[in-house]
């Protein structure tokens, strides 16, 4: 079951104005959206999600104040223009893949069960993880694993993938690819804190969905759309995302940063929802021009 991370903290930093216009950039299971709607009076919430399956969950809320947009938040400008929304009072980014998507075996985000190597947020658009492994140059694969997975042995991993590809033995499922990585990278005599394939799967997912590029674009568009006093809140789950959020918020003179240090989950939430343990929330407010 998907549980919204840092829910109370998100609402606190959004500082919801009952008649305001807000954006949930990552609708997912709708937990954050439901809480925002509960705090609104005659205000409006515009919810984005690239995953087609999210539309049914949004429509099931039966709330006329909610407008669902099936699009990645990198399309924020174009989609808000289409809706005639020139300014917003706040926006929430809950980044990464949801536990709900991880639980959908056929999406290929997890190696806990065998599934095709897909990993696309929108399964009907773009190249899959298998496409990347099957067609990317060795240098591109090495860059993906090093930059997005922070894997030191990225060149060795890329060479091994290309060798398997040329031999016609490229893994086609999540479990086969995880086993391949484990056999290649497992350190003899050492017990790893995480499965050796974890960072490789993260790197592929980020590359497949261009998550970091989308984050740069989404943050820039959100800040530009924000009216004075509006709030931007972002929850990240790994250092690459958090670095982009931190540098963007701190580096923009139009913003007043509200979180000197990232807000993290308390002991109770961490115990109840293990996913929250890696979550970091940062927030900022748009200054008056």
UniProtKB/TrEMBL annotation:
Positions of region (Disordered): 265-289
GO CC annotations, alphabetized: cytoplasm
InterPro entries: RsmH, SAM-dep_MeTrfase_MraW_recog, SAM-dependent_MTases_sf
Coiled-coil intervals, chain numbering: none
Molecular functions per Gene Ontology: rRNA (cytosine-N4-)-methyltransferase activity
GO biological process annotation, one example: rRNA base methylation
Protein's name according to its UniProt entry: S-adenosyl-dependent methyltransferase active on membrane-located substrates
Lineage: unclassified sequences, metagenomes, ecological metagenomes
